[in-house]
Specification:
4-stranded mixed β-sheet; cell outer membrane; about 700 residues; about 5% helix; TonB-dependent receptor; transmembrane; transport
Amino acid sequence: MKISHLLRTTLLAGCTLSIACPALAEHGTTPESREDTLTDTIIVTAQRRETMASDAVAAPRQIALPADAAAIAARVAGGDIFGNGALSGQLSYRGLAGERVLGRINGQRFATGGPNAMDPPLHYAPSILVERIDVARGVAPVAEGPSLGGAINAELVQAQFTDSASLSPQMRAASQYRSVDDSYAVGALAALASNQWRFGLVASREQGEDYRFPGGTAVGTSFERNLYGVHAGFQTGAGELFVEYRRSETDPSGNPPFALDMVYFDTDFVQGGFRGQIAEDVGLTVRFGHVAVRHLMDNQTLRQPRAVPAQARASFAEADTMTAEAALRLGSSRAYLEVGADAELTDRFVTITNPTNAAFFIDSQPNVRSDRIGAYLQWRGSSGSAQFELGGRVDRIEQSAGTPQLGAAVPMGPRGLAAAFIASGRQADDTTVDAVARLWIEGGALVPRLTLARKTRVPSVLERFAWLPTEASFGLADGNIYVGNQTLKPEVAWIAEAGFDFANDWLTLRPTVYYRRIEDFIQGTPFDATPGVINSPVEMVASMSGDTTPLMFRNTDAELYGADLDFVVRPLASLELAGTASFVRGQRRDIADDLYRIPPANLRLSATWATGDLSLGAEVFAAADQNRVSLTNSELPGDGYATVGLFARYTFAEGLAIEAGVENLLDERYAPYLAGRSRVGASDVPVGERLPGAGRGVWARLTAQF
């Protein structure tokens, strides 16, 4: 029996039951309870704690909070960002990005709605409401779900249980202004909580204009987004019941690297469940969730100049994800055996239209489905001072696509491709196996660690079923036209990582070296052996869109290796020096070429002086040249650069503080290597050039909590 037939009704019933019952929010473990050896944590809006190795290297109080939370996550060692617009950045972690890095919000995973990933997972985490961002160091444990490499989870602010039996109010609020794009952001949590109940409301509003850079304005980069939601929790001696609902509304926002801009993303998040101890040393977690994305993008609303009627496009996209998770844990938090199962059912639909011609429409992704069911076993234990975490998981994935419908005004070229697609199999089944072993030795200032893993990723439905040649590439934003490939095999990565953590009263140092050998790595390659020669229907259709050299997703062989580190030095009680350094190299193993979109080496250094209620500091970020580029994908080299920023913080009273700073103090003109290339004609950024970094600007942020 098909997974979809067996589980869809079950998940719908489970979601309804969990929402209807009184519930308590699974607000996540506190940062103090996380294992620093296994997880990097960036504290964003919580009150400052004593400096920890997990968050000191990327303290966001040093920067103006960008609307895009991916830019905050990119501050971890090994991190970088695909800059595709103010709300569409993707985290690049140790050379991997997109669907190869598992993204979640409040522990909930889901399928993004845009076929070009205009809404990657962190799109739904407004920075002004983010409490913390957890990044699995190097390799995600099997309990977090399938992912080729790391995993990231953004936790939004929520009400917290108290020690009192009576309900008491809780409030968090923050507001920020940034001059470089004349943007503002406001966000707040209002809550009532006791030792048994908690109820919370969250809301945020963000809006910004086109940002300025040395030499002009990046037209088409304005943005607007609202989020609001409710959550509730009930706590008993056995554990917690929780439920939460959020609505995210992105209004017209620019995406210069893409052919279309966002008109709207209207997305609803619902999840609920239970987490607790049902008996001594027996823990149980159950969670059900549903995410519904509704999306419109066009080249009419914001794009300057607006496309002529014959080339006018408006694409409608939908994505629905239902999830279910259950895990039984036997033992304590540091020594346990956990067995779990999870399911993720997704439906997508994309229709391309011409708003000036009702007879022109194409179902580019018709009723595309991907259903996954998985199970895992994870063992955490120790032998003397040696600690270990061993895990394995198996996943079964079934994918399929429907039959596309085309309007009467669609030319014969796409009609022929649609007919060939309808006649094809339009379905695929895969079974994948992951295994992770993480070991470290505690007991002193020096903690050696080692990770060995086998990780897999099934081809996305876009990579498999994109029958119509378009620029949809899940966020590569490179102007190339891609087509799918139903013969793709899952990617398999063999991973080895080694490093150590060292910490004493004045120094924290955490270096890591790693190697990843990836079999069947999926990358765009020339459609046939005669690039530029239009001798196939796919190339004919691609040439109608201005690209005579389309790419097809194919399996290749690759390797990535590198090193990164973070450190904190405290030479004086009032002075802290911190930084990160990252280097990664990616190569094809089947041919002599470099991998595509690999970030350059970079270095981040900051110095903070603090005394009493006042702290002052400066930060330098430098990126090297990137000359090791993909010839297969006609990738161009990138120049290195360095920027300087200043920041300050003053605490008026407990829970009330103002922060301010200057970004790009020297007004350096630069273009990050991973930034997308502009497609906007009426901009000071030439068409085809990388989007430059923001110019010099001031920012100020006011935070309050009680």
